[in-house]
Specification:
Length: 513
């Protein structure tokens, strides 16, 4: 019996010098491929133009008329500053102390969770003036807040069961807040510096209860329920240590409309009652907090990015699937046996090209959209001027360019896995664009879930309004509000893109070209 010897075929080795197959040479090769295909350059140019044009069209379709009088806080932000105030002037340094014994809804209904009863040191009776306050709330414990946007949590005691002693000590511009359950052992809440106080300030008791709308959305429609209203707070053991020009406590409604103001008041004027035993009962409404119902001018300037994504996804897909379709990928892998380096080079090139183009398009689109919004009534002071090189605009511009780039790289990686242009583009649309569209129609819990777990979460990078935890608001996707912070939302897309690249790398190592 004759045995035929088996011939062993040696593995392929590139004939090129090792230096000529390095990553730098692969980058130059992929770069040359991109710039020699006119169709890809055309898609890139169309993506930039469409992004700018749609940003402009979106801004042109937005306008605002004359609204109610607004209040500007110490930091230049629009704020709410309306409450019932029982006060005395304090000249120089001093300390105000009081015990909050109760807080309830004046109409007997459910109390707004962010209703507040406490003590406050305010530079003047003017709305928007600097302040620091220590307060008790029905659902969020004791808080120290100052200048509208700052909030520090204190003890989470149940006000319905345990009255809260509160204290504010002023030493120049330094204000220190304290809380206690017995008036003997005090917990320091915080020490802050509040500028613009002046020598004489107004100190005393306050009560406020913000009104709000609770939005419920189902597949059958959307409903709104009014909440909040008017709160009644009771206090005792009110003392003021320090020099005051008044011997008696006065009362006023901060934010009350003038005689020529046609805007109706919500719940009527507040009241202050003082018993013979020194118990103070204040009823009031309003809020001392940032105003978060204004349109998001930053997010409104990036509506073109949504359309630009389609072109970037197509570009990332075609950059790899075209080679599979024409069989050129075999030539690429023959010249460069390290397939992972080829994938890295392609991802680097498509990512760099789309980021650069996206950055230019979003910067131009944002600038033009801002000018259009200004001409349509979005003017200071309610809508402050936003510089391109200042956050949140700079973060939104650069973040939108990163978003476009990541989508292109995601499409590239999926193209390696699926090897089909139509299938890849459809998959990217389902992952990135469809959740954004569905979030406008789904019930809010489902919509917010979609915008947490899908790459559409990355659109949060365009959010220009800061949503503060001490303000109750409806986070609606159609209003540009996202459940994740801007950077956390973008991180979701980064995670999807990284996972797709790992899957593409695994596929390249196990499949034939």
């Amino acid at each position: 019996m004759t045995t035929t010897p088996t011939r062993t075929v040696p593995p392929y080795r590139s004939a090129l010098h090792p230096a000529r197959t390095g990553f730098g040479r692969l980058l130059r090769a992929e770069w040359a491929k991109f710039w020699t295909v006119r169709a890809w350059l055309l898609v890139l140019a169309i993506a930039a133009v469409v992004t700018v044009v749609v940003c402009q069209l979106g801004a042109s379709g937005s306008s605002v008329g004359g609204g109610p009088m607004i209040t500007i806080g110490p930091g230049g932000e629009v704020v709410n500053d309306a409450f019932r105030f029982t006060y005395r002037p304090l000249a120089g340094d001093g300390t105000v102390t009081a015990r909050v014994t109760g807080l309830k809804a004046a109409d007997g209904k459910d109390l707004e969770p962010w209703a507040k009863a406490g003590i406050i040191v305010k530079s003047s009776l003017k709305q928007g003036s600097p302040y620091a306050a220590v307060m008790a709330t029905p659902a969020h414990g004791v808080r120290m807040q100052w200048n509208f946007t700052h909030d520090t949590a204190g003890p989470g005691s149940d006000l319905a069961k345990t009255p809260q002693w509160l204290r504010l000590k002023r030493l120049g511009e330094k204000l220190t807040g304290y809380a206690s359950v017995d008036g003997q052992n005090w917990t320091r809440l915080g020490e802050v510096r509040v500028g613009g106080m002046g020598r004489t300030v107004q100190v005393g008791l306050f009560v406020t209860a913000p009104a709000h709308q609770v939005v419920h959305r189902s597949f059958g429609g959307t409903s709104e329920v009014q909440g909040g209203g008017e709160a009644a707070g009771t206090f005792d053991h009110l003392t003021l240590q320090g020099s005051s020009t008044a011997t008696r406590w006065a009362a006023a409604d901060i934010g009350a409309p003038g005689p020529n103001d046609p805007a109706p008041r919500n719940g009527g004027p507040g009241t202050t009652e003082v018993s013979a035993t020194g118990t103070y009962t204040l009823t009031g409404h309003g809020d001392i907090a940032p105003e978060e119902n204004s349109p998001d001018m930053v997010q409104m300037s990036f509506q073109g990015v949504f359309m630009g994504l389609l072109f970037m996804a197509a570009l990332g897909t075609l950059f790899v699937t075209t080679e599979y379709k024409r069989g050129l990928i075999r030539t690429t892998f023959t010249a460069a046996p390290s397939r992972l380096k080829v994938l890295a080079a392609k991802a680097t090139v498509i990512g760099s090209v789309t980021f650069t183009t996206g950055l230019l398009a979003t910067a131009i689109g944002f600038t033009l959209a801002q000018k259009t919004l200004r001409s349509n009534g979005f003017k200071p002071p309610e809508f402050p001027d936003i510089s391109l090189f200042q956050n949140p605009a700079l973060r939104a511009v650069v973040g939108s360019a990163v978003l476009l780039s990541l989508v292109a790289v995601l499409a590239l990686a999926l193209g390696v896995v699926l090897r089909s242009s139509a299938g890849t583009i459809a998959t990217v649309v389902v992952l990135v664009i469809l959740p954004q569209i569905l979030s406008f129609a789904f019930p809010l819990p489902a919509a917010q879930w979609l915008l947490r777990v899908t790459p559409a979460a990355a659109f949060a990078i365009q959010q220009g309004v800061t949503y503060y935890p001490q303000v109750r608001h409806n986070c609606l996707p159609e209003s540009g509000c996202y459940p994740l912070t801007p950077y956390h939302g973008l991180a979701v897309l980064v995670a999807y893109t990284a996972a797709a690249l790992l899957l593409a790398a695994w596929t390249l190592r196990r499949r034939d070209a």
